[in-house]
Amino acid sequence: QVQLVESGGQLVQAGGSLRLSCAVSGLDFSAFGLAWYRQDEGKRTLVAQISSAGSPYYAYFVEGRFTISRDNANSALYLQMDSLEPEDTGVYYCNIMSTGYWGRGTQVTVSS
């Protein structure tokens, strides 16, 4: 059974930092690309993704502020979020690319 469990979301002031984690089990973690999405007002938007080889891609609105990384030995995905803005508020989900596997999300709230 494939499971994805996000953690690390919380309330933070604008300008602050958070690190999100996603623990994955039940499949060959290293073989898949992985992604973080944000859901806000019913819309789910890609934030960042990382290929199985470790190549990152960032949405323009987080470029230079967020860093995606993966730990294949521990089947974990991370999102380091710096210089947070109120617009970053939402539920963050991790996703195994090209599959229907999603976590349940973790809430990030950035206050102004």
Give the helices and strands, then pairings.
Layout: E1 3-7, E2 11-13, E3 18-25, E4 34-40, E5 43-50, E6 56-58, E7 66-71, E8 76-81, E9 90-96, E10 106-111
Parallel strand pairs: 2-10
Antiparallel strand pairs: 1-3, 3-8, 4-5, 4-9, 5-6, 7-8, 9-10
Explain the overall architecture.
- The chain is mainly beta and 112 residues long.
- Helix content is 0%, strand content 53%.
- It has no helices and ten strands.
- It has strands spanning 3-7, 11-13, 18-25, 34-40, 43-50, 56-58, 66-71, 76-81, 90-96, 106-111.
- It has a six-stranded mixed beta sheet, with no helix packed on it.
- The termini are far apart.
- The mean pLDDT is 97.
Low-confidence stretches: none
Give the beta-strand count: 10
Distance between the terminal alpha carbons, to the nearest Å? 40 Å
Q: Helical percent range?
A: under 10%
Q: Major sheet, described briefly?
A: 6 strands, mixed
Task: Work out the helix count.
Answer: 0
* Apparent shape: globular
SS-based class: mainly beta
Rounded average pLDDT = 97
Instruction: Describe the strand arrangement of the main beta sheet, using strand numbers.
Output: 2-10-9-4-5-6
Strand content: over 45%
Task: Output the helix-strand order.
Answer: EEEEEEEEEE
Rg to the nearest angstrom?
13 Å
